[in-house]
Amino acid sequence: MCTFNEIRNTRYEIRNIMLTIGILALQGAFLEHAAKVRQLGVEAVEVRKPEQLEGLAALILPGGESTAMGLVAERWGLVEPLREWVRSGKPVWGTCAGMILLADRAVGQKQGGQPLIGGLDVTVNRNYFGRQSKSFETLLEVPLLGAEPCPAIFIRAPAIIEAGSQVEVLARTAGHDEIVIVAVRQGNILATAFHPELTADLRWHQLFLDMVAG
Amino acid sequence: MSLETKLPANGTNGAITGTFAVKAGLAQMLKGGVIMDVVTPEQARIAEEAGAVAVMALERVPADIRRDGGVARMSDPQMIKGIMAAVTIPVMAKARIGHMVEAQILQALGVDYVDESEVLTPADEENHINKHKFAIPFVCGARNLGEALRRISEGAAMIRTKGEAGTGNVVEAVRHARQMNKDIRRLQTMDEDEMFTFAKEIQASYELVKQTAELGRLPVVNFAAGGVATPADAALMMQLGVDGVFVGSGIFKSGDPAKRARAIVMAVTHFNYPAILAEVSENLGEPMVGINLDTLADNQRMAVRGW
């Protein structure tokens, strides 16, 4: 019997022999991302050291605490290799904390700022939606992913308050007094302020794998 | 999906706060991280700089609560607010077991997580807080699977071992983590019929017991707490399968808190690389002075509080 996973697997094998997706595993919800990627029949590995980036087709920067993740990455000499990864145009997807790390500019950082990887021409407000009591679930309209709205979980989430002209806006939601951007794509960079790894909807992971497979 | 009905497009008036997915989700974001007890904004900044994923704001660390004796209560709101203002990472605070008003106050302050904690003097000797009534999430201590599932039934979105706080002795945290693993392994050998009796035996809901068996782990994030004092202690707990580590007195009761805090963060990330653990354990200065649990009278044990 041919399972769903085998079908998917074949799909990506045909396009790119065998894809392996790296998940930055310094801290946060990396297991959840790995599980989703595997659910789509693609290999996922955890990345904690620079040398583990070798041979990967793409990289996911998971949700977590962006300050902790940035500081730990800095300590292990990962920030430069990650910057090089993004500069070279290899596919990368940041969710929540990962999106903050990918932003060229971030406001609301800790005193003294925090290490960022950059590459995405946006300004991110780090805790735009506020503290945990303001964390929420909602449905997003994402034309790129079809008519069915996407369930989205926002946890102490950031928002994009300014995006460059090369940035394709994929989803917006209601902010404080305005509508803010919560999902974007720029070249091979995908960024979401919410957590597709925490919902049953596989479409974001599917979209990313399609970007990877070209 | 927790969203039963379709919401209006693009979140307009369609955002729901305080759902279980949102509560448990924050704990998922803290995984692989270290949560540190801090008593001042300065300590909170040191913790954030070290790479802590959250801080626990309290007036006295458990070691001092132990030393001072008397009734230990929720901390002064002004002190908690000072810490919330000092850092951008999540701030947790402790309420006494069963003291729903302390928890309401903490919610009103806007803390990100409440720890219904045995480290404080219990306010109710029969009931824990009904945590479903709150929009902010709770973490609770547990010594075994039954206790953990009872807390989850009451609405806890995160569990931690109780350990024996303020002792600098990891033995109880190890005992509780191993007990949890043992209970889950035992559960996984059972067929569905046996699970009913098991649920009764451990005084937990059948639904949660079944869910635990299916997942092969607790249905929520599970951290270690109580007695972790060194990078090796933290890595030990991670190797026993916990998702992250709370460090209470261990950091700011030691000789060089900033360095020790950084070392424990690195040990939790690389808990499976002994060479890295060796490197980060080097030259950390004086650890906190530990307490041997044999010398601790029964009435001084915090882990037995909670039911």
Features:
heterodimer; A: 214 residues; alpha/beta; Rossmann fold; three-stranded mixed beta sheet; 6 helices; 28% helix; B: 307 residues; eight-stranded parallel barrel; 9 strands; 13% strand; globular; disordered N terminus
Describe this structure in words.
The complex is a heterodimer of chains A (214) and B (307). Chain A has 214 residues and is an alpha/beta fold. Chain A is 28% helix and 29% strand. In chain A, β1, α2 and β2 form a beta-alpha-beta unit. Chain A is globular and about 45 Å long. The N terminus of chain A is likely disordered. In chain B, α10 runs parallel beside α12 and α12 runs antiparallel to α13. Chain B contains 13 helices and nine strands. Chain B is an alpha/beta fold and 307 residues long. Helices cover 42% and strands 13% of the residues of chain B. The longest helix of chain B has 18 residues. An eight-stranded parallel barrel of chain B has the order 2-3-4-5-6-7-8-9, surrounded by eight helices. In chain B, α6 links the parallel β6 and β7. Chain B is globular and about 55 Å long. The interface between A and B is large, with 53 and 51 residues. β7 of chain A pairs antiparallel with β1 of chain B.
